[in-house]
Specification:
Blueprint (H helix, E strand, L loop, with lengths): L27 H6 L3 H15 L82 E7 L8 E5 L11 E9 L4 E4 L1 E2 L5 E8 L4 E8 L12 E10 L2 H4 L4 H7 L7 H8 L4
Antiparallel strand pairs: 1-8, 2-7, 3-4, 3-8, 5-6, 6-7
């Protein structure tokens, strides 16, 4: 409870019949002269009675409406201008001189953003010729059990016209040796021949003994058939051939490693 204090002014005259006193007039002068404790107590009780009449504080009122937005402040000062990329000494002007202070880097007689690009560097060395027109494919032969021949699809590897390529074929033995086809195979007791059928897109491989009789090859004896497809040029289609290029370069086509070195293929 909050106590309120009121200003109290003694009336010019009062009577105190309730206190058992004789009716007596008190004016301001006689009050000042009175030394009665009873009178002082009476005045104190009256003052307390006035003070205790204050009620309890009420609830806090609702928040008032938002006030209007204040006036925008003044704009700040503009920042200093930056330095142009060509302005090497930062003096704000383009300097065209004949010494190291020259800012006309590209020597076109004008100092501008083109001078920030620098001079062209020297051309690098030419790279080695690529083998984009030569493709290497490997067929897994582990899927075959004992066989005297097998056939494989070519269309799964070459999407172009099959007749646009010249081909070299090799076969891998489980010992790690790689043999050319046609040619003698491991142990020199048998040989293989291969027949591409471009119309149906398949390869046919046959195995023979020294008497040209079909020979059975145990499954797993040979692990991969390797095909090197070399793109023919328009000239090659009319009689030329990458095989001629290899022969002219002295490459032994029966040696896969020599062919791989020439074309940059996987060994």
């Amino acid at each position: 409870m909050k106590t309120s204090f009121f200003s109290f002014r003694m009336p010019s005259s009062i009577t105190l019949p309730l206190l058992g006193l004789k009716s007596q007039r008190f004016d301001s002068l006689s009050f000042k002269r009175s030394k009665s404790p009873l009178l002082m107590t009476t005045m104190l009780l009256l003052a307390i009675g006035f003070v205790s009449c204050s009620g309890e504080d009420g609830d806090i009122g609702p928040e008032g409406p938002e006030g209007p937005q204040g006036v925008a402040g003044a704009d700040g000062l503009d920042g200093a201008d930056g330095i142009s990329c060509w302005d090497l000494n930062g003096n704000g002007i383009g300097d065209i001189t004949e010494d190291d202070a020259n800012e006309d880097i590209n020597l076109d007689g004008v100092v501008d953003a083109l001078d920030c690009q620098g001079m062209d560097g020297e051309d690098g060395q030419d790279g080695a010729d690529g083998n984009a027109n030569v493709k290497l494919y490997k067929y897994n032969l582990d899927v075959f059990l004992d066989y005297t021949n097998f056939n494989l699809s070519m269309t799964g590897y070459i999407e172009d016209d099959l007749e646009d390529y010249a081909y070299l074929f090799y076969i891998d033995h489980k010992s790690g040796l790689r043999y050319p086809i046609p040619g003698s195979l491991y142990g020199n007791n048998s040989y293989a021949r291969i027949y591409p059928d471009f119309q149906v897109g398949r390869l046919y491989v046959f195995f023979y003994d020294k008497n040209d009789t079909p020979v059975e090859i145990p499954g797993g004896e040979y692990t991969h058939l390797v095909m090197v497809a070399m793109k023919l040029s328009n000239t090659a289609k009319n009689g030329g051939n990458p095989m001629t290029e290899l022969k002219a370069a002295g490459v032994d086509t029966s040696d896969y490693n020599a062919v791989a070195d020439y074309f940059g293929l996987e060994q």
